[in-house]
Structure formats: structure tokens, C-alpha cells
Design brief:
The structure holds 2 protein chains of 2 kinds.
Chain A (H helix, E strand, L loop, with lengths): L3 E4 L2 E4 L4 E8 L5 E7 L6 E7 L2 E5 L6 E7 L2 E7 L7 E8 L6 E2 L3 E5 L1
Parallel strand pairs in A: 2-11
Antiparallel strand pairs in A: 1-3, 3-8, 4-5, 4-9, 5-6, 7-8, 9-10, 9-11
Chain B lengths: L3 E3 L4 E4 L4 E7 L6 E7 L6 E7 L2 E5 L2 E6 L4 E6 L8 E8 L9 E2 L3 E6 L1
Parallel strand pairs in B: 2-11
Antiparallel strand pairs in B: 1-3, 3-8, 4-5, 4-9, 6-7, 7-8, 9-10, 9-11
The chains are: A mainly beta, B mainly beta.
């Protein structure tokens, strides 16, 4: 089992649907991140949480809503997405340093 | 101008060759530099990190930072087919939890047997 687990691994949703991505880290880290990875583009930082508090929102549209109930769990709630939001969504965590450990990602397709 | 520039490749070399992967950056405040490897359908995994200028070696991998030129490199010696992956450079100004890490777009590397 990897240190950072993401579910589901794949998700297809319509533009009017509401869905949630889940991330759980088993490493005892205090910081958690959401990144978006699109083809041929750099990883885009979306949100950062440190000790459950959001410390970074990188101008992400409100159709993406993060939730961090505790230091081990992170959610990304999705609603009324657009086809251009189709991408690999990666969760990561870190502890005391900038070295981030990533999950396997959720491949999201918006139809 | 992007904060971090990385040649997307693809780069194809024969097994056993020395591979050189590079990134340039524009923000002189970056102090911590990382290389990640990402296999197909997987999340990125941390390979190496370095602080400020200089070299760091780990087995067949050497990371090099030249802050005066705003240029970082990853060298892979005796390359193996298992090294075939996308390599992402990353950097940040602050080496602490919840740091804002900026990534390059990644270089796809293929090692031919």
C-alpha cells in the first residue's frame, strides 16, 4: 500500500454531476496538496493545507471545492465541471520539508 | 515567461548511455531543487533534492544546480530501460511543509534496450 492513497483511480462525470475525490495519507504528514496534471503542461498547484488549514488557493475556480477534515484526509468536491477540467488530479503530502510524496492520481474525464 | 522551463522531449537514448536532463528557471529566490520521476499511470516519486548550488550524487543519479545561471541538471549514468519515464524538475523558495512547489512540464525519456 502506498503512503498516499487516492480514490477513485478513474472517474467519468457529466457537466451537471457532483462528485468527490478522496485522498488519504498514512505517513503522519501535516501538509496536503491538490495538483492538476494536464497533458504537456506542468503540474499545477491547486490547494495547500497545513494542519487542516488552507494556506494556498492558486486562483482555482469555485467549481472545485476542497475539504480537509484532518491532517490525514483531503477531499476535492467537484460540481458543474467543464470538459477542459479533464486531467489527472494528484494528491500529495509532506512533513517538515518541501519534499512532497504523491498518490497515484485520479484520472478525471468530464463529458 | 514561465517560472520553470523544461524541454518536453521525447528523448530516446540507447541502454548504457549517459542521460542529461535540464531545467531553467527565472525566480532567483528558488533555493531548493528537486527531481521527480513519473512512470505511466503513476504519481510522481521523488528522486533527489538539492539545496542551493552544487552537486549531489545518489547511485547512478547526479543532480547539479548552478544558481548563477539559473540552471539545474539531472544526469543518469549507465541508463537502463527501467529508467524510461517522465522526469519532472521542481523547485521552491522555502524548504518547509506546505511549500509552494513549482514544477517543470516534464521530459519524457525512453531508454532503448
Amino acid at each position: 500500500e502506498t503512503g498516499v492513497t487516492q480514490t477513485p483511480r478513474h472517474l467519468v462525470m457529466g457537466m451537471t454531476n457532483k462528485k468527490s475525490l478522496k485522498c488519504e495519507q498514512h505517513l503522519g504528514h501535516n501538509a496536503m496538496y491538490w495538483y492538476k496534471q494536464s497533458a504537456k503542461k506542468p503540474l499545477e498547484l491547486m490547494f495547500v493545507y497545513n494542519f487542516k488549514e488552507q494556506t494556498e488557493n492558486n486562483s482555482v475556480p469555485s467549481r472545485f471545492s476542497p475539504e480537509c477534515p484532518n491532517s490525514s484526509h483531503l477531499f476535492l468536491h467537484l460540481h458543474t465541471l467543464q470538459p477542459e477540467d479533464s486531467a489527472l488530479y494528484l494528491c500529495a503530502s509532506s512533513q517538515g520539508t518541501a519534499e512532497a510524496f504523491f498518490g497515484q492520481g485520479t484520472r478525471l474525464t468530464v463529458v | 515567461q514561465k517560472e520553470v522551463e523544461q524541454d518536453p522531449g521525447p528523448l530516446s537514448v540507447p541502454e548504457g548511455a549517459i542521460v542529461s536532463l535540464n531545467c531553467t528557471y527565472s525566480n532567483s529566490a528558488f533555493q531548493y531543487f528537486m527531481w521527480y520521476r513519473q512512470y505511466s499511470r503513476k504519481g510522481p516519486e521523488l528522486l533527489m533534492y538539492t539545496y542551493s548550488s552544487g552537486n549531489k550524487e545518489d547511485g547512478r543519479f547526479t543532480a547539479q544546480v548552478d544558481k548563477s545561471s539559473k540552471y539545474i541538471s539531472l544526469f543518469i549514468r549507465d541508463s537502463q530501460p527501467s529508467d524510461s519515464a517522465t522526469y519532472l524538475c521542481a523547485m521552491t523558495t522555502l524548504y518547509s511543509s506546505a511549500s509552494k512547489i513549482i514544477f517543470g512540464s516534464g521530459t519524457r525519456l525512453s531508454i532503448r534496450p
